[in-house]
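User: I'm writing a tutorial on reading structure tokens. Could you give me a worked example: one chain, its sequence, then its tokens, then a sentence or two explaining what the tokens reveal?
Assistant: Sure. Here is the example chain.
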Amino acid sequence: MKTEDSTEFSRQVGNKEARKLKAQRSAKRGLWFGFSMFGLVGWSVMIPTLLGVLLGIWIDKHFPGQHSWTLALLIMGLLLGALNAWYWVKKEFRELQDEQKDESDIENKS
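And here are its predicted structure tokens:
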């Protein structure tokens, strides 16, 4: 009887500890993390777009032609920036999934 009670008690303590560790890890990803991620996505789209526009303006100014390089490179920069942002968001999502998987593994072992 004593071993069943102590085993149950150990399991409860382990579950509480796992929840506490999960809460501590979750606190690291608060409001400021969301703002920084939002900024990262914004900059990763804006910089290639602006570089494409600047390069397009320079090409149009020095080598005038029938088509607008500014517009073409604006679109290419925007697409490149969108792919870059998609990469960062996917990477962060994968890290969150890995953390959740690790936490569920800890809870299942208890």
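What the tokens reveal: The radius of gyration is 25 Å. Helices lie at 2-27, 31-62, 69-109.
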